């Protein structure tokens, strides 16, 4: 996953401005540490795919990572960190191939359900509340444009919270393919489509902040821009020593039944 992120990290002008001065080896080590930290917390049960099995119902925070592995490619671990493979790397290599794409999904329960799940009948925090703690990623290398990274990440997160905070929904937190060898092969569409049956079952929307490369894909799969200014969140890169405007777009994909009801309602006006 770190290799996938690294392959596309500087594909946009904003990415070059944020990470272009940092040696590739430093970026790779940092990304690896970030994913290890995040996965250690995010993949604790319950999971989205365990809605049917744990008996807890839909009202707890859940995450899911999906990966696609190309069995014709060799793993990258020993190439990047010769002699320093960890136990997790060894287990992954034993399966063969290389991870070439991944998706990250988060389930956001109803606000009132999340609150009731976090407290017991006496109003005190339950031990299980620690599951929802956010992993703190390691700091980036000194050569990364830290101020720009913080500014942009905070700007996007604030926009997401402002538009979708408290909404009962699924969120696409990440969707990435190894560039350029595995682009335009339908991999991202397959990964993205995994979440739609879950959303239809619970009759909730799927939301995200689309990057410039991902925007056409999300339009193709029924997402529409939403929010002020057409959902656009933008950064004037001239402020940070670059040029041009970088944009993300807040988007939502409504459940099919809700789309039908909305269409009927509009026709009846």
Describe this structure in words.
- This protein is α+β, with helices and mostly antiparallel strands and 269 residues long.
- It has a single domain, classed as Aminopeptidase (3-Layer(aba) Sandwich).
- The protein has eleven helices and seven strands.
- The protein has helices at 2-8, 13-19, 24-42, 77-80, 87-95, 111-118, 146-164, 187-193, 196-202, 215-220, 256-267; strands spanning 62-70, 98-108, 169-177, 206-210, 224-225, 232-236, 245-253.
- The radius of gyration is 20 Å and the shape is globular.
- The relative contact order is 0.15.
- Residues 112-142 are annotated as: Disordered.
- This is N-acetyltransferase domain-containing protein.
Comma- or semicolon-separated keywords:
single chain; 269 residues; alpha+beta; Aminopeptidase; seven-stranded mixed β-sheet; 39% helix; Trichothecene_AcTrans; N-acetyltransferase domain-containing protein; Acyl_CoA_acyltransferase
Describe the protein's topology.
Layout: H1 2-8, H2 13-19, H3 24-42, E1 62-70, H4 77-80, H5 87-95, E2 98-108, H6 111-118, H7 146-164, E3 169-177, H8 187-193, H9 196-202, E4 206-210, H10 215-220, E5 224-225, E6 232-236, E7 245-253, H11 256-267
Parallel strand pairs: 3-4
Antiparallel strand pairs: 1-2, 2-3, 4-7, 5-7, 6-7
Helix pairs in contact: 1-3
């Amino acid at each position: 996953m770190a290799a996938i992120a690294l392959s596309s990290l500087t594909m946009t002008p904003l990415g070059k401005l944020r990470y272009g001065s940092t040696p590739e080896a430093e970026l790779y080590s940092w990304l690896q540490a970030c994913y290890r930290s995040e996965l250690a917390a995010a993949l604790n049960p319950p999971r989205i795919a365990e809605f049917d099995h744990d008996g807890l119902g839909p009202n707890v925070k859940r995450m899911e990572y999906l990966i696609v592995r190309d069995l014709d490619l060799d793993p990258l671990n020993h190439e990047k960190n010769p002699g320093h493979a960890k136990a997790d790397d060894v287990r992954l290599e034993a399966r063969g191939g290389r991870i070439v794409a991944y998706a990250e999904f988060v389930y956001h329960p109803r606000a009132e359900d999340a609150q009731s799940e976090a407290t017991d009948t006496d109003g005190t925090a339950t031990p299980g509340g620690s599951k929802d703690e956010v992993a703190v990623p390691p700091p980036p290398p000194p050569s990364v444009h830290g101020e720009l990274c913080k500014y942009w990440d905070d700007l996007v997160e604030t926009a997401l919270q402002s538009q979708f905070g408290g909404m009962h929904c699924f969120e696409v937190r990440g969707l990435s393919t190894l560039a350029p060898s595995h682009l335009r092969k339908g991999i991202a569409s397959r990964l993205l489509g995994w979440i739609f049956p879950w959303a239809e079952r619970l009759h909730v929307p799927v939301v995200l902040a689309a990057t410039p490369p991902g925007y056409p894909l999300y339009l193709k799969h029924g997402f529409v821009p939403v929010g002020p200014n057409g959902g656009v969140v933008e950064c004037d890169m001239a402020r940070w020593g670059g040029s041009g405007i970088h944009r993300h777009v807040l988007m939502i994909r409504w459940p099919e039944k809700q789309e039908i009801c909305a269409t009927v309602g509009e026709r009846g006006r």
